[in-house]
Amino acid sequence: MKEFLQLIRWKNLLIVTLTMVLMRYFVISPLLSQVKVALAAAPDVPLPMMLQLPLLHFILLIAATLCITAGGYVINDYFDIRTDLVNRGNIIVGNKISRRKAILWHSVFNIAGVSMGFYVSYRAGLFWMGLIFLVVSGLLYFYSASYKRQFLIGNLVVAFLTAMVPFLVVLYEWPSLYRYYTVNAVSVPEMSFLFYWVGGFALFAFLTTLTREIIKDIEDFEGDRAYGRNTLPVVTGIPASKIISTVLAGLTILLLYIVWFLYVRDWITLIYISAAIVVPLVLVICRVICGSTRRQIHGASSMMKIAMLTGILYSLVVKAIIYWKLL
C-alpha cells in the first residue's frame, strides 16, 4: 500500500483536492454572495447568489480529476524507469510494482476518470465538456512517452494542465448558475467576474509550475542528458536555464503586485502576498542562482512547492476580505 500511494503521489492529489475545494467554497461562493438577484417568485426581495452545481456532482468532478492525475503519475513512472535510476537511484515501477500492474492501474484510473468526467458534464448540461478529461488523459500519456523529451513542450503541457485544476471548478459551476438564474431570476446577472478571479489563480499556477518544471529539469540534468532528452538545460545549458527560471519567478512576483495595485488594494492581501508568496519566491531565486549541487537545486524545487501552496491558500484571504468588505 505504501508503494502504491507513493506511485500515485498521494500528497499531490491532496493538494489537487484542496485547490478545488478552496476555489468553490472560498473564492466562488463568497464572490457570488456579493451579488444580489431578484428572483421571479419574490422580485421585491433581492437575494445573494448561491452555488448551483450539486455537491455530489462536485465530488465526482474532484474524483474524475484525481483519477486522471493519478493515472498520469503512474504512466510517468512507467516511462521514467531508466532516468529515475540515474537521477534518484530508486524506482517504484519495475521494482516494487510490476510494469504490468502499473499499466493496469493507469487504464483503471483513466477509464474511471473519463467516465466520471462525461457523467458530470452530462449532468451539467454540456456533455461535450467530458472531452476535456479524455484529452487530458491523452496529453498526460504522450507527455510521459514523448513530450517531456522535447524542448519545452513537456514543461508547457504540465503547466497548462496544472492551471486547469482551479479553472475546472468555475467551468463546471457556470452552466448550473446560468441555467438556474436564467429560469428563476428577473434578469440574468453578470458572472464573468468569476472567470477573472479563478483565472488569476490559474495564471499563478501556470507560471509557478513552469518555473518549477524547469528547476526540476536542472536537477535531473545528468539522467536526461544520458538518455538523450532535449530538456531546456540539456539544449541551452544549466546557466541559461537558471536565468529563465529566475526571470519567470521574478515575473510572477511582478504580476502579483500589479494585480494587487490594479484590482484588490487591501492591506491584508499586500501583507499576505509579500510574506507568504513573495518571500518563498525570492528564496527560490537565490537558491537557483547560487545552487551548484543537485541537493541545492532540489531545495529550490521544494521551496517553489511552498510558494505554490501558499498561493492556493490565498483563497482563504479572499473569503476574509469579502467577509470584512475590504474589496
What is the domain tally? 1
Order of helices and strands: HHEEHHHHHHHHHHH
Proportion of strand residues: under 5%
Provide the residue-averaged pLDDT.
Answer: 92
Rg of Cα set: 21 Å
Low-confidence stretches: none
Termini separation: 47 Å
Strand order within the widest sheet?
1-2
Q: Find the count of extended strands (DSSP E, 2+ residues).
A: 2
Number of helices: 13
Give the overall form.
globular
> Which range best describes the helical content: under 10%, 10-25%, 25-40%, 40-55%, 55-70% or over 70%?
over 70%
- Classification by helices and strands: mainly alpha
Largest sheet: 2 strands, antiparallel
Structural topology:
Layout: H1 2-7, H2 10-33, E1 36-39, E2 42-48, H3 55-79, H4 81-87, H5 99-123, H6 131-145, H7 153-184, H8 193-219, H9 221-226, H10 232-236, H11 238-264, H12 267-290, H13 294-323
Antiparallel strand pairs: 1-2
Description of the molecule:
- With 327 residues, the chain is mainly α.
- The chain is globular.
- The protein has a two-stranded antiparallel ribbon with strand order 1-2.
- A hairpin with a 2-residue loop joins β1 and β2.
- It has one domain (2-323).
- The termini are far apart.
- Helix content is 77%, strand content 3%.
Write a concise keyword list for the protein shown above.
327 residues, mainly alpha, two-stranded antiparallel sheet, 13 helices, 2 strands, 77% helix
Please sum up the structure shown.
This protein has 13 helices and 2 strands. The chain has about 325 residues and is mainly alpha-helical. The chain is globular.
